[in-house]
Amino acid sequence: MFLLNTISVSIGATTALPFGTIVVIILAYTFIAIPLLAFGGIMGYRFRSKFQAPSATKISPREIPLLTWSRKTPGQMLIAGLLPFSAIVLELHSLYATVWSYKILTLPSILFMTFVLLVVLTSLLSVGLTYIQLAVEDHQWWWRSIWRGGSVAMFMFGYCIYYFSRLNMSGFMQSTFFFCYNFLFCYALFLMLATISFRSSWLFVQHIYNAVKSE
Length: 215
Description:
The protein is mainly α. It contains six helices and no strands.
């Protein structure tokens, strides 16, 4: 946002925030947000719960066998990202047309249903791919589940580039605003979908290994 405001000031746009407002925002982050972040980290560290694995673990990690491309991180990102993206691409086009073009989104209920579909598909695909990964004795599912869920946002940013090529938008300021705002939007979705994917895989792993332990 500071970068976009600097560009707006240099061009002389009327939407640019004054320098005093920028200083107030920086001071608020420095004296309010950062101390609260440090306080939250200290409290979380002091009152953290001890990690309990759902099953017995060994000190030395097991050797992972050779995997096919579909069971490696890029292949799973392709599968877990392309399927949910293909389910929401039409509504995503309507959303981009509302934000960056002249169209008006008249059915917000459809947008909400598409969002629910995106969350459900991301969760189910994460669980399924985690099961496939564990079935071939690949235990490194933690970060892979994060990348699987976040890959949907990468496809969305790729569609953003395609959508920009179809617009009649030109100029340095317009292009910068378009890509920066879309990057922030896709980054927020990356964090959200990655969290959903990881939590779904974690609950699934806990469930199956607790079932094995009880048997």
